[in-house]
Amino acid sequence: MTKGAAALRMAPVLRGERRQLFAMADEYWRQIRPTGDHFVNDPAAREKYFDAEFWDEHESRFLWWAKLDETVIGFAKTELLPDPVWERLGYIGDFYIAAEYRGRGHGREFARLLYDWFAQQGIKSVRLYVRTDNPGALAFWEKEGFETARYQMRKMLP
């Protein structure tokens, strides 16, 4: 980092910041989901999903801001999950850097801050899922050293 450059840091999302996190998560979903996707076109479904997957309190779930000085430029949802081999593993459920801040190393730095936090929790293994229709995220995580371990498939029923 050059002298005088803004410092990236991670900070916990506070309970009073729900609206700001939902707005950023909603932007993220619109970018990664196909335009005709039912989820993208259903505000009630997005609210319900957000409450269940982000906002409902779980002792193993942690929400983080990526902050450039005091400007929020992204977020991550992490979890500490039980694992039969490692006892617990780290999980990155969602990871987002706003489009105008991409390509400058902020995502890489934010990911490394998360790895450091996981290591402080005694975590030895981190997992995540990447949508097959998100080649940018796939390339990012591969550069970070993640390997494809399995394919998860689904079928939508009428």
TrEMBL record:
Domain (N-acetyltransferase): residue spans on this chain: 8-158
Q: Which Pfam families match?
A: Acetyltransf_1
For this UniProt record, give its keywords in alphabetical order, as a comma-separated list. Answer: Acyltransferase, Transferase
Report the transmembrane regions from the record. Answer: none
Gene Ontology terms for molecular function: acyltransferase activity, transferring groups other than amino-acyl groups
Q: What is this protein called?
A: GNAT family N-acetyltransferase
